[in-house]
Amino acid sequence: MIGLVDALVRGLTGFLRALHPRNLAKMARLTPLYFPLAARSVRRRLLRNLLVGLALGSGIIVYLGLAASFHGTAANTSRRTEPLVLPADVLAFGIDLPDSQPVDSLKWVAPAGAFETFDRWQASTSLGTLWVVGLREGSRLWSGDGLPSFPLQGEVLVPATVAKAGKVALGDGVKVGEQARSGFAGATFRVAGFVEGPAAADALLGNAVVMRLDDLLALRSGGALPGSPLPAPNAVAVWERQPGDNDRLLGRVTDLFPRASVWWSDLPAARALAAAGGFLSPGRVILATVFVLAGLGVFNVMLLSLLQRKVQLGVVKALGAEDDEVFLLLLLEGVFMAAGGAVLGVLGGSFLVNFLDRASEVPLFLSGSDFIWALVLAVVSFYLAAWLPATLCRRASPIQLMAGRRLYVNPRSTCAQCGRCGGF
Amino acid sequence: MKPILRATALGRRFPAGEGVWALKKVDLEVAQGEFVLVAGPSGCGKTTLLNLLGGLDRPTRGDVELKGTAFSKLDESGLARIRRRELGFVFQFFNLLADLTAEENVSLPMRMIGLSKAEIALRTASLLEAVGMSYRAKHTPFELSGGEQQRVAVARSLANNPLIILADEPTGNLDSKNGLDIMELFRRFNQEKKQTFVVVSHDPGFAEYADRVVRMHDGVVTTIERKGG
Predict the structure, then answer these.
(1) How are beta strands B3-14 and B20-31 bridged, if at all?
(2) Which CATH number do you get for residue B102?
(3) A window 29-48, beta carbon within 8 A of B
(4) Which residues of chain A have pLDDT under 70?
(5) Which of A72, A217, A304, B54 has the highest CB neighbour count under 10 A?
(6) Number of independent structural domains in chain B
(7) ipTM score of the complex?
(8) Does residue B88 carry a pLDDT above 90?
(9) Whole domain around residue B98: which residue ranges?
(10) Is B16 contained in some domain?
(11) Sequence-separated (6 or more) residues with CB below 8 Å from residue A91
(12) Mean pLDDT across the stretch B48-64?
């Protein structure tokens, strides 16, 4: 155990030492010498190395697929929501996810003739459907929460507040309905009577404005929304993409519109991103698993390659190759595998994203940094996997290798003398 | 004659079980141009001695000096440089690199010391010619017979004009004819180019090739016989 820790510390310092310009120059000088040797060794074991490359490539493909999905979702949500400043009286919005349907339960009541769907706007994301429904200007809509059940088919009891504000008389028709996925669907009912509704039923949902924070702040001076025919809002629904801003935002809205009721919901974009994050979490587990498996693949192949060629590597040392050179030789072999896997992964990942982009409503795309990150991840997992076999070989004496003796992480410590682990 | 290689009180203990002294206390000197045969039964420490003389292994005690440079003073890189420039090795199992052709195997040590491509090509061709393997230059070890592989190995050992060639049972894996051919090759290089050889063999028949025969038993040198007396 002490030997292993010692080896890890030495490995880390060795890695840092290898980055010294002098050592990098040395490696650059030696690479042409060992490059063909490593290339041939990889070519001779093509199938095995191809499988390792495939494992690394799979890791990159999964990474690129997840990254593209995340970017696509985020950008799609962002692109479709940010310019959304609708001059609607009421907007309802939600994401079609089990835990994010803030207005699905909305029951409503509106005077007949004063209700018309303004617009139904829909955007598909990889997570589901994000939709927004607005009411035409001048429409009025009250909450139907808490209303008593209707005594007769086709008749309805209307809250007194609603009737007064909407100038609804007994026998008039009103529209009553529930928010549905398809929008504000409702049927016309005849007013059979008036009831004192609960507080929720008195809340005026109509004549509200949904806007982005920037637009809201533009109203600091009060009055109408610039360029909008709407009057000053008596209710404000706030929609901002940064969840952390909500509390601050609500405070400012209250300051700006002290007489308006503020209605706000969880933020679609933030929800989409959070949901995307939720979606990515299992994705990350898969990704980590794929990279670990790929790393184990590299580790196994490198170890096998070393153990099968102890004698050959010993001969290279006997002929005068320094320890670092043998380390370089093995790393180069690993580089060939990783390079093959990286090319495979980048091509496969690009193809997959391109295919999914065409097949799905959600635009998927990759940025240059995704490719860089995928390659960095592949290189790191490769290096971690290749380090131990290469280190074992670097530290062994030529005769240890040529005689096929067991190799220990640290041959000059108690590790080798203990030998309980059996070595390699 | 002043020795170029000197082993002083050389001992090597292997940690198996209670610890085994494969080499107990050996003193040996090898002069420039000398052909030394180390003989003895299996397990007497011949190969261990050769490994220590070649800097392939570290002694438990004692030291080896090559042209006045003590191996104990050198780190692993220093030893590697000595092996690269001053020593040539021939092994019982040839130990050619399977991924390389005959000429690439011969040129590898030269590439390690950074000779120019032209010089490497020239010298490789000359060495393969000298061991009679020019016609097999492009063949990989798998395509060569044992005798041919050993010839290539001899050419490789001569690649960097080493001070000494250390050969460990170079004929041990060959039939008698090929074995004699290799020993003849050694004698030719020794006599024509004054190349120094230290050859380990348990074949008493090879004593005639050597200037000196060092006989070993149980990890110690028992006798040293000089040619002609």
Answers:
(1) antiparallel
(2) 3.40.50.300
(3) 33, 37, 40-41, 44
(4) 1-8, 10-12, 14-19, 29, 72-167, 175-189, 192-284, 360-363, 409-422
(5) B54
(6) 1
(7) 0.91
(8) yes
(9) 33-57+75-226
(10) no
(11) A132, A133, A134, A135, A208, A210, A237
(12) 92
Assess contact for A392 and A306: CB atoms under 8 A.
Answer: yes
* Angle ∠(A102,A107,A113) on CA atoms, nearest 5: 120
Please give the residue of chain B at the shortest CA–CA distance from A401. Answer: B56
| Measured torsion, CA atoms of residues A391, A393, A397, A402, in degrees rounded to the nearest 10 | 170
- DSSP reduced 3-state for A353: helix
Confidence (pLDDT) at A334? 76
> Nearest 5 degrees, angle CA B166-CA B167-CA B173?
165
Tell whether B100 is covered by a domain. yes
A40 contacts on B by Cβ (under 8 Å) = 99-100
Instruction: Please list every residue in chain B whose beta carbon sits closer than 8 Å to the beta carbon of residue A49.
Output: none
Tell me how far apart the alpha carbons of residues A236 and A103 are, in angstroms, rounded to a whole number.
15
Nearest partner of A318 among A420, A233, A245, A401, judged by Cα: A401
**Do residues B29 and B8 lie in contact, with contact meaning Cβ atoms separated by under 8 Å?**
no
CA distance A220 to A253: 9
Structure confidence by residue, pLDDT tens digits, A83-112: 333 333 333 333 232 332 333 344 556 555
Give the model confidence (pLDDT) of A20-63 as tens digits: 777 777 777 677 777 777 777 777 777 777 777 777 788 788 77
Q: Do A315 and B95 touch (CB under 8 A)?
A: yes
Find residues 132-191 of chain A whose CB sits inside 8 Å of chain B: none
Q: How far is B151 from chain A (nearest CA, A)?
A: 16
Domain-embedded: residue B122 = yes
Q: Is residue B23 part of a domain?
A: no
- pLDDT reported for residue B31: 93
